[in-house]
Amino acid sequence: MKVLVLGAGVIGVTTAWYLQEEGHSVAIVDRREAPAMETSFANGGQISAGHAEPWANPQAPAKILKWIWRDDAPLLFRLRMDPNQWKWGLKFLAECLPGPTRDNIAQLARLALFSRESLGELRAATGIAYDALTLGILIFYTDADAYEHALKAAAIMREFGLDRVPKTVDEAIAIEPALASARAKLVGATYTPSDESGDAHLFTQRLAEKVIARGGTFHPGRAIVKLDADDGRVTSVRVRDPQGEESFMRADAYVVALSSYSPLLTRPIGIDLPVYPAKGYSASVPVRDARKAPHVSLTDDSAKIVITRLGERLRIAGTAELSGYSTDLNPVRCQALIERTRELFPEAGRYEEAAFWTGLRPSTPSNRPIIGATRFPNLYVNTGHGTLGWTLACGSARSLARIISGRDPGVDFRFGFQ
Ligand SMILES: Cc1cc2nc3c(=O)[nH]c(=O)nc-3n(C[C@H](O)[C@H](O)[C@H](O)COP(=O)(O)OP(=O)(O)OC[C@H]3O[C@@H](n4cnc5c(N)ncnc54)[C@H](O)[C@@H]3O)c2cc1C
């Protein structure tokens, strides 16, 4: 079967790869000049199965209210005159109840484990290099109450088969010696030794090269303007080139992997995907002193930022703002990332040379991605991966490729969309 994948982020490119594994021929189309130039460009780099907890949880509404006036808040909801944002917000509140939260954790944990295993197999099979480090992920706490809560969260993750274990301050520093400079602030940590990190941008670009080497095609610089449907099937995809010329692309089946833009293309044909952008920030900082810069990927729970070593750079990422599709940089948020990291690791990076970036996480109210068939028999979706797109990419893509091939997806997850 010929499958056209819409979107060349980490989700679209891994989908193309696993479709080829199932014997399909693939084409990928994207408006950008190369793969992974939008949300997959400069994320936190964590493959964090042990931290696959949804934003929507019983504590979230109170925290969001507390942060609402803070310009540097870790999670900020800015109300707009946008009914899609309001609908999303109401669904988010429903997902914060204890029952849905537990179900979402269970599903995300299963998909994340399958995904991490799939990434390991893909890496072994292809030899692909992307500044990967398999040193685990350490989450550290500077607030005693938050640490108490985290010990419960870690116990829940262990129930679902994840090896997230509590660590004392001394044990945390033994795992990541660079943390010694922050010792006075720490109250404890949790560690998931089987988690990983790596550069999603590099990975996606290198995997796209392999997809092309196996006969796939990549069509850059084509903005998708419309999905055409007739007689209950998608018949073509209308694209516009940089000169404004429109043309049609056709295939036997189509996969929508357009991140936060997916609902904008599917709504006109009656598929209302609950995906809304949550803007995040990152700073990429050259390493100054390799011994003082962490190697183990870290999460600073109180600041809600991740710090990941990617070769000779530190990637610092965090913050979430539900305020529409703007990718403008807010200098207060950029500085908040730098100041916090400088405070913890004063000699680790050349902070004055930081390169800042924003990306729009394609977020669903439950944090669960939307993967699978639609009411059009030749249209599939793989989108809405929110905070966990890099973590969940290989598993989501592999299971969708199997679904498209009429096979068992290989993981217990609620697929599909009604
Ligand atoms: C600050 C930040 C930190 C993060 N940290 C992590 C992390 O540590 N670990 C983790 O697992 N996840 C993390 N994420 C989330 C992760 O980066 C995303 O979930 C993931 O990149 C989404 O991939 P995607 O392929 O769906 O989106 P994208 O990479 O955005 O791909 C979608 C593609 O669709 C194309 N497109 C969109 N509209 C059109 C159109 N109309 N026509 C043609 N092409 C179009 C875009 O050009 C783009 O290439 C982070 C995100 C952010 C913002």
Helices and strands in order:
Layout (H helix, E strand, L loop, with lengths): L1 E5 L3 H12 L3 E5 L16 E2 L12 H8 L7 E3 L5 H13 L2 H29 L10 E5 L2 H16 L5 E3 L1 H7 L12 E5 L3 E2 L2 H14 L3 E3 L3 E8 L2 E8 L5 E4 L3 E4 L5 H5 L9 E11 L10 E4 L4 E6 L2 E10 L8 H14 L10 E9 L6 E4 L5 E5 L5 H16 L14
Parallel strand pairs: 1-2, 1-13, 2-9, 4-17, 5-15, 13-20
Antiparallel strand pairs: 3-8, 5-7, 6-7, 10-11, 11-12, 14-17, 14-18, 15-16, 16-17, 19-20
Helix pairs in contact: 1-7, 1-10, 4-10
Bound molecules: flavin-adenine dinucleotide (FAD).
The site of flavin-adenine dinucleotide has 41 residues, from helix 1, strand 10, strand 14, strand 18 and helix 10.
Number of DSSP strand runs: 20
Task: Please state the structural category.
Answer: alpha/beta
Helix/strand order, N-terminal first: EHEEHEHHEHEHEEHEEEEEHEEEEHEEEH
Rg over CA atoms = 21 Å
Helix content estimate: 25-40%
Bound molecules: flavin-adenine dinucleotide
Q: State the separation between the terminal residues, measured CA to CA.
A: 24 Å
Helix count?
10
Assign an overall shape: globular
Q: Tell me the strand percentage band.
A: 25-35%
Instruction: State the major sheet.
Output: 9 strands, mixed
Low-confidence stretches: none
**Average pLDDT reading:** 95
Key terms:
418 residues, alpha/beta, 6-stranded mixed beta sheet, globular, binds flavin-adenine dinucleotide
